[in-house]
Amino acid sequence: MGSIFTTSKDAKIKSTFGKGKFIPFYLQFVPGVCVETITNKKHLKSYFNDKNTNSILAISHIRGGKPKKKKTSLNNNDRYFPLLRGVYEVPAKGDPVLLCTIGSKNYYLGPLNTDNNPNWNEDNLWEPEIPVSSKPGSHEKNPRLMKGESLNFSKVRYKRMSKSYNEILDGTNAYNETHGDIMLEGRHGNSIRVGSRGTTPYVYISNGRQSTFTQEGFADGTLISITNRGSLNQHFGGYAKQIESSGGDDMLELDIVDGFTLASDYVSLDEDAPVRFMGDLVRDVNGSGDVKEIIYDYGSDEEQNQILASSDRITINSKSDDIYLSSNKDIHIGTKRHLTISTNENLIIESEQTYLGNPTPNGQSVEMDHMVLGKKLQDVLKDIVALFGEIKVATQLGPQGTMPLPSEQSVITAIDDILSSKHFLDE
């Protein structure tokens, strides 16, 4: 039962002989509670009908004088569908909802935000199915089952997402004052934020956030940020890394680093510093300068769009066609361990000059050795061997060569074998 005509003791008019008369009025939306959640066609109450997906079975708290239905007696007449076509949140069992009927079709809105908690909100109109005055032992002993809640749902006291004033990005005309954002919050530490600082927009996608955190940051399991102005540090502050993950209070202990650092250059308290830093090579190819300014201050002084994707593992997979990685300026790749490239056909590197090693460490040019061209080296070595064959020395038997013919042939064969059949250099 959704929308309903009902009466209230506060809605009464005088009638003949001074007696009062209740005035019926129409309630489009009535409060109720979700009893069953049908998330797929295999659910028992779906009856293997795809059209019932994301519907709920619910009981209205306002019944117009009719007796309250028991949870076990609900049927298709008590089925409600999302009111909005494309944007909705499917409630959990026990969630408070709003119910309505339009054109003989039942719909729901919700869950309702009774406790302003993104994880779980209690139904403040709940009443036990079996009266409290019933004989002892007739009630369900488990309080969650008694309220019709699912034992599979994890209740965690996640804090509501907030937006703190940012003096650098919000402006200084009014201290500690800013506008809110459009928020999509999940139940267990994930969110999508569409907002702005001043007039410059941003989008944050966060997943795996700590339950006590009220804003996105580098400590999140995964963070994707799309910003128009402001450096990463201006948006998110310092870099926080979880130390313990064994559960309990220890999992909230974080190693706080003053400012965002690329993972290849980040050195934790329990590891040795790498021999080569990505930031050093980036600095050197840019003609020296400040690494912080080149890498980490991007967008701090002007509108500069950037995307950050930060997670424990990132996989980019093209199933049937190409991947194009292009940059108007440079492409930098850094890793603390190995960089591997595997291909079943050709590996082609085409550049003006190719260096194996850093030609400008600390901004100072150093003399580097040269690679050799195999075929030209082969020709030179063969010419040298041929010269040895032309040299004659005087002996009792007459002029003789300095190199026996079998040895000369073996050297020529070895020179022929020095060329690789799989690796080539541009002449």
Descriptive account of the structure:
With 427 residues, this protein is of the alpha+beta class. Helices cover 13% and strands 22% of the residues. The chain is built from seven helices and 18 strands. The protein has helices at 143-146, 167-170, 232-236, 278-285, 291-296, 374-390, 405-416; strands at residues 4-6, 12-14, 20-22, 25-27, 30-38, 55-60, 79-82, 96-102, 105-109, 182-185, 190-197, 200-207, 222-229, 239-242, 254-257, 303-311, 392-395, 398-401. The strands form six sheets. Strands 5-6-7-9-8 form a five-stranded mixed barrel. The longest helix is centred in the last third of the chain and has 17 residues, at 374-390. It is elongated and about 155 Å long. The model has no long low-confidence stretch (mean pLDDT 87).
